[in-house]
Design goal:
alpha/beta; 5 helices; about 45% helix; about 160 residues
């Protein structure tokens, strides 16, 4: 699995830890092991620009997801051509804003690291087609998110 993590935010983040979390999430969702994912940390100005351009909403946000292909969990092949050959594909990009995450973490009473892990997991789920607009979707997505984070933290001894 190829997971690229870029930090353009100016904030100190655990890039290796986020990459390991992303791998844990993708493995837990049975995404093809050759799939590619990009995670980008940006500052509030860059996130504001993205949020306004793509979501038509003002100000910065915590996480944005930009899916590239229509992969779905449980499809180990990630898709296939006419001959049934695997097509692992590019999942897309998850963009995180550490300064917004830090503010949210304080409000929630946990660490910025915990908040970034939650947001990264949330962003990956969006890349894979999960949503939370409807009550049933919300229950499924947030339940899956909670389970993935719990197994991650258990694995890490936290």
């Amino acid at each position: 699995m190829s997971i690229e993590v870029l930090n353009e935010s100016g904030a100190a983040v655990d890039e290796k830890g986020i990459a390991a979390l992303a791998r844990h999430v993708l493995d837990g969702l049975r995404v093809h092991p050759l799939a590619e994912l990009s995670i980008l940390f940006v500052d509030e100005a860059a996130m504001t620009e993205l949020h306004e351009k793509w979501m038509d909403e003002p100000g910065p946000t915590d996480v944005l997801s930009f899916p590239m292909d229509e992969l779905r969990p449980g499809h180990m092949s990630g898709g296939a051509d006419e001959d049934g050959e695997a097509d692992p594909s590019l999942l897309g990009d998850v963009v995180l804003c550490p300064s917004v995450a830090e503010k949210q973490a304080k409000d929630a009473g946990h660490s910025t690291e915990d908040e970034l892990e939650l947001l990264c997991t949330h962003g990956i789920l969006h890349l894979l087609g999960y949503d939370h607009a409807e009550p049933e979707e919300h229950k499924e997505m947030f339940g899956l998110q909670a389970g993935l984070l719990a197994s991650w933290r258990e694995e890490r001894g936290r």
